[in-house]
Amino acid sequence: MLSYATIGVTDLEKSEAFYNALLAPIGAKTLMKMERIIFIGKSMKEPMLAICIPYDKEEQHAGNGNMLAIAPGSKEKCEELYHKAMALGATCDGEPGQRIPDVFYGAYFRDLDGNKIAFNHFG
């Protein structure tokens, strides 16, 4: 059902490099690039992350209560990508761990622009 989710960024090139490096281990890369928006994912037929300079040309800001969750396929991959995000300059917003026993595992961070992102695994 989900086609893509968009987050606002302040520096398109810097954010593209961040997300391409971060998501490469799960097969994601830049798929389409235009003047103010870039789509990153595995294919145009699967859900994608879009990073953009806000359409209204106002300052980017992370929405309160907004979060993007990415399922990389395992608890181990959640932890690996969380640590990669930290190495790429992200900030911690919840270290990797089992949040609901035998149901939900999550790792949370803020990207270079303060957007909240989670790597999660059900199970």
Explained architecture:
With 123 residues, the chain is of the alpha/beta class. It contains 2 helices and 8 strands. The chain has a 4-stranded mixed beta sheet with strand order 1-4-3-2, with helices on one face. A 4-stranded mixed beta sheet has the order 5-8-7-6, with helices on one face. Strand 3 and strand 4 (48-52) form a beta hairpin. It starts with a strand and ends with a strand.
Ordered list of secondary-structure elements with their pairings:
Elements: E1 4-8, H1 12-23, E2 29-33, E3 37-41, E4 48-52, E5 68-70, H2 75-87, E6 91-100, E7 104-110, E8 116-122
Parallel strand pairs: 1-4, 5-8
Antiparallel strand pairs: 2-3, 3-4, 6-7, 7-8
- Gap between N and C termini: 22 Å
How many H/I helices? 2
Percent in helix: 10-25%
Could you tell me the strand content as a percent range?
A: 35-45%
Radius of gyration: 14 Å
User: Pairing-aware structural class of the strands and helices?
Assistant: alpha/beta
Gross geometry:
globular
User: How do the strands of the widest beta sheet line up side by side?
Assistant: 1-4-3-2
Strand-and-helix sequence, N→C? EHEEEEHEEE
Q: Count the E strands.
A: 8
What integer is the average pLDDT? 95
Largest sheet: 4 strands, mixed
Low-confidence stretches: none
